[in-house]
Design goal:
By secondary structure, the protein is of the alpha/beta class. The chain has 11 helices and 14 strands. It has a 6-stranded mixed sheet, sandwiched between helices. Strands 2-1-4-5 form a 4-stranded antiparallel sheet, with helices on one face. β1 and β2 form a beta hairpin. α3 packs across α4 and α3 runs parallel beside α5. Bound molecules: adenosine-5'-triphosphate (ATP). InterPro entries: AAA+_ATPase (IPR003593), ABC_transporter-like_ATP-bd (IPR003439), ABC_transporter-like_CS (IPR017871), ABC_transporter_ATP-binding (IPR050763), DrrA (IPR005894), P-loop_NTPase (IPR027417).
Length: 315
């Protein structure tokens, strides 16, 4: 079954077109990443699909409900976690969760049961009785996500869920998201500026640029569209670089400022050996050699003409 379906989604603010005909097809129980730089239209897409903002045009269905005609049906089936946590600082972690239970009109006992389960799952049990104002950024983000899950959503919108988190907290959030999909069959639409996040988490990725989807596919498919990797040689002086550039004339791309030569190559041992043998045969000495295999950053660069929205912080 399709969890999220959008056809021809458009949105403008006055003269400014923010979404210029977006199509999405997200099967149930999968993670879909909308990858884009600041201002690409990611948050607007999430706000429209989660009924917070009306679209100008487009047919939209979420969890089997039409977004325009049955917004209440959509709201009952979804959870949304935005870039700014909805946590109440004066309440404890547990009280924040119980407040959500009340908002969802859960019976008291069921509310407590879910809250306890989520506090354990998110490793917040020890902090359950502490005011959220004292929490670290990572803890707040986890609590925010836990609050969203009190409503037991089938479709979860995560708007930049790990922006500003340290690498360890980011991994924890990733693990939680993976668990929700694998164990509970939840569908996740996540927006991110982190190429690595999309790579690690998403079944499919759409690259959003200026309100248009410029590419869509699995991480492997997107990387597969790229030409192969390259070998990068750095030299000690311009003379050595010039000699090397002459050796690989027509193949290599020299950079006279960085004193580097870029040679297309797949990084296999025979290719490397051929390059090193050629250098040695001509008595040219390279200072360093680095291998580069295509990653999502290259995909982003190739598609948008700019380098990735943000370098991924975790390796
Ligand atoms: P970010 O990563 O910064 O959140 P984003 O991809 O989520 O970026 P959006 O927040 O969807 O981008 O914004 C897309 C564009 O729409 C931006 O250029 C923004 O300035 C513009 N925009 C958003 N909301 C409004 C508004 N209420 N009025 C006018 N322009 C708006």
């Amino acid at each position: 079954m399709t969890a999220i379906q959008a056809t021809g989604l458009r949105k403008s603010y006055g003269e400014k077109t923010v979404l210029d005909g977006i199509d999405l097809h997200i099967p149930e129980g999968t993670v879909f990443a909308l990858l884009g730089a600041n201002g690409a239209g990611k948050t607007t897409t999430v706000q429209i699909l989660s009924t917070l903002l009306p679209a100008d045009a487009g047919a939209l269905r979420v969890a089997g409900h039409d977004v325009a005609h049955d917004p209440d049906g959509v709201r009952a089936a979804i959870g949304v976690t935005g870039q700014f946590a909805a946590v109440d600082n004066l309440l404890t972690a547990e009280e924040n969760l119980l407040l959500m239970a009340d908002l969802h009109r859960l019976p008291r006992r069921e509310g407590r049961r879910r809250a306890t389960g989520l506090l354990h799952r998110f490793e917040l049990a020890e902090a359950a009785g502490k005011p959220a104002g004292a929490f670290s950024g990572g803890m707040r983000r986890k609590l925010d996500l836990a609050m969203t899950l009190m409503g037991d959503p089938r479709v979860l919108f995560l708007d930049e869920p790990t922006t500003g988190l340290d690498p360890r907290s980011r991994r924890t959030v990733w693990d939680i998201v993976r668990g929700l999909v694998a164990d509970d069959g939840v569908t996740v639409l996540l927006t991110t500026q982190y190429l690595e996040e999309a790579d690690r988490l998403a079944d499919r990725i759409a690259v959003l640029d200026h309100g248009r989807i410029v590419a869509e596919g699995t991480a492997g498919e997107l990387k597969g569209r790229m030409p192969g990797g390259h070998i990068r040689l750095r030299f000690g002086d311009p003379g050595q670089l010039a000699c090397a550039a002459a050796l690989f004339d027509g193949i290599g791309s020299p950079d006279t400022e960085a004193l580097t030569l870029r040679i297309p190559g797949d990084g296999t041992v025979p290719t490397l050996r051929a390059v090193l043998d050629a250098l040695e045969g001509a008595s040219v000495e390279a200072q360093t050699l680095t291998l580069h295999t295509p990653d999502l950053d290259d995909v982003f660069l190739a598609l948008t003409g700019r380098s990735g929205p943000q370098a991924a912080g975790v390796r």
